[in-house]
Please model this.
Amino acid sequence: MARTALTREEVLETAAALVKQHGPDALTMRKLAAELGTAVTSIYWHVGNRESLLDALVERTVADLAAITARGRTPAARIVSVARALRRELRARPHLVAMVHERGLTERMFLPAQRTLAQEVHAAGLRGARAAEAVRAVQIQVVGHVLVERNRERAPVQSPAEVELWQTATTDPPDPALTRALAAPIDPERLFTTSVRALVDGLLTPGNAPSAPTAPAGGRPVGDPERDTGDGGVGRGPYSH
Model:
């Protein structure tokens, strides 16, 4: 007997769980109806057809990432907290993030995090192109790290593995502690936090502003981050081609 008390939020929550677990191709209206214990017609009543459902899931994902907030007592700590939260959100929903990207809404998805980062780099005293560069650098650090993590997880099993190679690298290592550490399994969260802290510390250190680009005769500086609309401009997103 089909259930009658069903809400749009329940439909979206269940659909999101299916996509997270199996990917968008596994999301069919029949499968979703079976998970909810209802009729397919009830799904259509609440969310429309499958394309409308996917659009709603994309909007929901964008809204979820907009909820990221900064935490900490200093601008540096707050920037790192945003980066860590953004990484967790991206890691938690790779299939949904891919759907956002496929629908051309990646930049919109990242905008709230960018705005939060902009507030924090302003609090740290950065302005203009240097502030924009800091925001972009942190964002790309997050995205790049997540992509590397995902690629490692999906890669074929390596034999010998990295830890085995370091364990047998040398019988008389010059730095035994280093060798032991590299032979140990990677802690992705710790590694990410270490790398993003180092990046943020460098970006916020006074005097670490990038040197001014050289201007050709009679023209503006090549790669001027405030005006360049090419590949070097600060306005391009991490998935731009």
The first helix runs from residue 8 to 22. Residues 220-241 have pLDDT under 50 and may be disordered. The two ends are 50 Å apart (CA to CA). The CA atoms of residues 115 and 135 lie 9 Å apart.
